[in-house]
Design a protein that fits this description.
Structural class: alpha/beta
Order of helices and strands: EEEHHEEEHEHEEEHHHHHEHHEH
Distance between the termini: 12 Å
Number of domains: 2
Strand content: 15-25%
Helix content: 25-40%
CATH topology of the largest domain: Nucleotidyltransferase, domain 5
Mean pLDDT: 96
CATH class of the largest domain: Alpha Beta
Strand order of the largest sheet: 3-2-1-4-7
Radius of gyration: 21 Å
CATH architecture of the largest domain: 2-Layer Sandwich
CATH superfamily of the largest domain: ATPase, nucleotide binding domain
């Protein structure tokens, strides 16, 4: 039994990543294919099945050598039925019977969950979470997602919405969010949110600043630009980073006070700012938590990068 393998799939809007892992979470093989979202995403699942079968033949492996396949996907997931709906970056507007099709196509048991939940499982198991039973993962990318592991179990909530950290309200009078309400963390701490905060602060900023000059010239800037300029002591960029990390620290403080995990792990593209980001979030987190939480919950940076998704997905099959 111990030599049976796990197969993890991380389904994204541009790429599908695959990995074959041992039961201890060590990656043995990995590959990827492009995500074909044409024709309402009808090619995606057949492409996944074809790629799995092709690679198993290549590696001279049989379906019975696998405990199961786990997959992380965007959209609303019914983990029991194995279906997905509303994954708009995949063109999946109607209900997709993913589990049924992949099990039929490969002959291997299949498990599925939301991509942010799956990344949380990966970081908890083999990354910064150090396999602790109580860990929260926050991913700062195009949006802000999250996953909550408590007592070793992923929390889903009654409608599958547990861990939607991006929709914690951090500014009741703030920017409108795509979810329909105002002031969500996602509107100020995602990659696009950082730029939005920069534009807002630049309007009332009068000092000398390269960031201000670039914005006034109509140049496109990214969250990466903002953090790089802040690291060079650009005054406006530092103010933007301070505001963004205040909101992040406030949200993390509320999570800490509510759940008291061993770690709140920050990942995703924006987290590439590294210790410069983490230390500032931690300072605000300490301001917004009471002593027992402040002393026991750590703010950490994710360690697995792009591999969190396939590792976490594979762990679903365990």
């Amino acid at each position: 039994m111990m030599d049976k393998k796990l197969l993890g799939i991380d389904l994204g809007g541009t790429t599908v990543k695959f990995a074959i892992l041992t039961q201890n979470g060590e990656i043995q093989q990995k590959w990827s294919i492009d995500t074909n979202i044409l024709d309402e995403g009808t090619h995606i699942v057949p492409d996944i099945v074809e790629s799995i079968n092709h690679h198993l033949a290549l590696y001279e492996m049989k379906p019975e050598q696998f405990i199961g396949i786990g997959m992380g996907t965007p959209g609303s997931v019914d983990i029991t039925e194995g279906t997905v709906i509303g994954a708009y970056n995949l063109n999946w507007k109607t209900l997709q019977p993913v589990k049924e099709l992949i099990e039929k196509g490969t002959g291997i048991p299949f498990f599925i969950d939301n991509d942010a939940n799956v990344a949380a499982l990966g970081e908890r198991w083999k990354g910064a979470g150090e396999n602790d039973p109580d860990v929260v993962f926050v991913t700062l990318g195009t949006g802000v997602g999250g996953g909550i592991v408590m007592n070793g179990q992923l929390l889903h909530g009654v409608a599958g919405c547990a861990g939607e950290i991006g929709h914690i309200t951090v500014d009741p009078d703030g920017f409108e969010c795509t979810c329909g309400k105002r002031g969500c963390l996602e509107t100020v701490a995602s990659a696009t949110g950082v730029v939005r905060v920069a534009r807002q602060l630049a309007e009332e900023y009068a000092g000398g600043s390269e960031l201000k000059a670039r914005l006034d010239n109509g140049e496109d800037i990214t969250s990466k630009d903002v953090f790089e300029l802040a690291a060079k002591n650009d005054d406006l960029a530092l103010r933007v980073v301070d505001k963004v990390t205040f909101y992040l620290g406030l949200a993390c403080g509320n999570i800490g006070n509510t759940l008291n995990p061993s770690a709140i792990i920050i990942g995703g593209g924006v987290s590439a700012a590294g210790e410069f980001l983490r230390s500032r979030v931690e300072a605000y987190f300490e301001q917004f938590t009471f002593p027992q939480v402040r002393n026991s919950t750590k703010i950490k940076l994710a360690e697995l990068g792009n591999e969190a998704g396939v590792i976490g997905a594979a762990s679903l099959a365990r």
